[in-house]
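Usage

Read records sequentially. Each one opens with the input sequence:
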Amino acid sequence: MAQPLFEKVAFIGLGLIGSSLARVMLAENLSRHIVASTRSEKTLQDALELGLIEQGFNNPVDAVQGADLVVLALPVQATEKVLRLIQPHLADNVILTDVGSTKGSVVAAAKAVFGEHLPAGFVPGHPIAGAEHTGVHAGKVDLFANHKVILTPLPSSAPWAVNKLIQMWESAKAEVICMDVEKHDEVLAYTSHLPHLMAFNLVEQLANREDNLDIFRYAAGGFRDFSRIAASDPQMWHDIFLANKTALLKAVDGFESQLAIIRQLIEQEDSHALMGLLGHAQAARQHFNHMLAKKPFMENNNVTQQFTILPGAKTFQGKFTVPGDKSVSHRSIMFGAIAEGTTHVTGFLEGEDALATLQAFRDMGVSIEGPKNGEVTIHGVGMQGLKAPASAIYMGNSGTSMRLLAGMLSAQQFDSVMTGDASLTKRPMERIAKPLREMGAQIQTTGERGTPPVSITGAQTLKGIHYDLPMASAQVKSGILLAGLWAEGETSVTEPEPTRDHTERMLRAFGYEVKTEGNRISLQGGGKLVGTDIQVPSDISSAAFFMVGAAITENSDVTLEAVGINPTRTGVIEILKQMGADLSVENERIAGGEPIADIRIRGSRTLKGIHVPEDQVPLAIDEFPALFIAAACAEGQTVLTGAAELRVKESDRIQVMADGLKTMGIDCTPTDDGIIIQGKGKAGDWSAIFTGGEIESHHDHRIAMSFSMAGLRTSGEIKIVGTETVATSFPTFTELAGVAGLNIQVTE
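and closes with the structure output:
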């Protein structure tokens, strides 16, 4: 049996929080002895009958004798009185903590009793958990599970005390966060105390009206949801409001100021500004909820979803629009924001990365409506109209956003900081920072490797440069060109080999002249962008899964509408054609400067294995996982070389695909820069190719979607583990696949 964390725990107060923690102590064997003190004899008797404590006392002095943990689970205003009573009786090594909603008042009470030399074991705390009912019987062993507990260690708090409390709360399955006292009280003032004050105030305001009965009788759900918290314990909230007076009054002042702004907009019927304010508020809530919800997906040990596909004959037919191109979605927001006039975007990709870009410009004062069903309306502020964000700009996992924005922000009049999630903060940013510094920008990256956060000093005069890219990078090229919009003179970039040209094409669509002469791209600073309509093409990388699915399925007939066919990205079309796919590119046109077309694929003949031409490899680098599935269904051998980059994507796509193919009965050999796949297809034979099996996707969205398409030709059940990342690039994947005829069961 493991050694308990504590020898004796004393609870001062045994309501909802105290009794719940006592239940955790018992369940997890955290203490040899548990005692409590409370003024209520009945509470003590009930706690004894429930087996929560072995002794109960009316006097806290009796409870704390010999305790190595004392938990103050009482109203915050009672803290000083209780501390004075127990102070002479506390053991030298005691850990002293509390569960109150304010921390400044608790620390002040402790200093009033102990003086400036606080005990080393004193660590204030606040579990952010609750329930409708109170009292010892309301306690639950899982009350803190998946909730946050904030600890506010002081300079005097010993690390051993903090670590023990972290262990204790983690045993309760809570997420422990440490922050300083002032920050805690400020955060809680805005997120908890102010909403409660507003609820009490609103109910009081309406109760004083003569028609109050009708008001309450006909109140809708929104009023009931908001006012529900006004039913909370008045004494408790009276104590909290007074205990957190300074931070709460600051929050009230901010609310009054914001209320005055929105009152004025309504009074003046300023539709544009009102829509911008409401849209920003809505998006901010959605954005931060989204980011917080996605955070665990960055951890490899958090597998939350799997796909299951059952064997059997399948059809695969229909007309579909797959999600919009991410690269174009990013740029539509960026360019629309600094254009003059309104830009209307259709086909916008509502994925995590593109939403991060959208939020960044909202934070810089741009009014943006949507996204709704892929539609976004951006009210441009012109080249000089961006405003300083209130805090660091959070870019999530989007390296594209950060590198392109680095160029734009270098030219602004305000200082800015860009940060991101754990993955983004490991990516190199010096490759863009170096040329921008040559233009006159003041940029600081972090650490020896030059990673985010990226700090940019505003009000710098930029001068155009002629820059030879040391490596082929569309992101670095774009960042330099975007800084060049504000720079004096000409800015040009020479590429070692052609890269994606989405930036150049879209700038031209917004009326800005960009010259392309061979591998040299240039523009003159000082121009302007004019708002326009942008149709974001469907992403060819997402379309590739349906192209392969149709190519390997008998009698299939799939049309993918408005797919981007930028010549730097059409390798998958050429490779499938060389393999003999019945594929046609129809209705070619230009939208937002980008070539688009409808792509029709029919399952009319068996594919043939080929040696993939190396000049097509860079043009299909993201689509190879899907093409490997096509190769397995082809007749003869398919050989891929010159694709070493596949080993350093979201996963080692060569090895991961090879492992999965072997699991499902396909003979293949990975090489350093490619793979050799022995196709099992036979002319005119549409029977099953794959044997089924369990596939580990390594949380790589393209791996998960590729093996899903294998479900069209499988004789056994396919399970694909770790598929939650599919939603970041193709949130409608399983839905569209189902309509086409491939039923994918999704389980959490």
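Summary fields computed downstream for this record:
- The radius of gyration is 31 Å.
- The chain has four domains: 6-179, 187-269, 306-322+538-747, 326-535.
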